[in-house]
Design goal:
Helices cover 79% and strands 0% of the residues. It is an all-alpha fold.
């Protein structure tokens, strides 16, 4: 059962780590896309940091509740900003994907600690 916590964190966070790394390798194109969507391009670096560092923090279980809360807001905000054309079936699916991931992160926020995590290790040392 303890491994399920780790597997769930990996499955939930992996998309963000990979997306952040993709944004690094396609930096200028991502800036252009953000600008076209009305989002200031200066937010790209904080977005990359949140996706990569936040995703890795979720995977290893470090500051899980705090990072998961940030990721919840990120999922909702990006759904509203980038996938708001709900008449387009693909955009509706992407919108709902983001909302669903926000729900997964809320479950991590609600957990006092997750097994096989840095948070759990630190709590047991006290």
């Amino acid at each position: 059962m303890n491994y399920l916590h780790l597997i769930a964190r990996i499955l939930l966070a992996l998309i963000f780590v990979l997306s952040g790394l993709d944004k690094i390798s396609n930096f200028e194109a991502t800036q252009g896309y953000m600008s076209a969507m009305g989002v200031p391009s200066f937010l790209l670096v904080p977005t990359i940091l949140l996706e990569v560092v936040g995703g890795l923090a979720i995977i290893i279980g470090f500051k899980t509740q705090l990072v998961a809360a940030a990721m919840t807001f990120f999922c909702i905000i990006s759904a509203v900003l980038f996938h708001n054309n709900l008449a387009d079936q693909m955009q509706f699916i992407m919108f709902m994907k983001n909302i669903s991931m926000a729900g997964g992160f809320l479950l991590l926020v609600a957990s006092s600690k997750t097994m096989l995590s840095i948070d759990n290790l630190l709590a047991n040392k006290k």
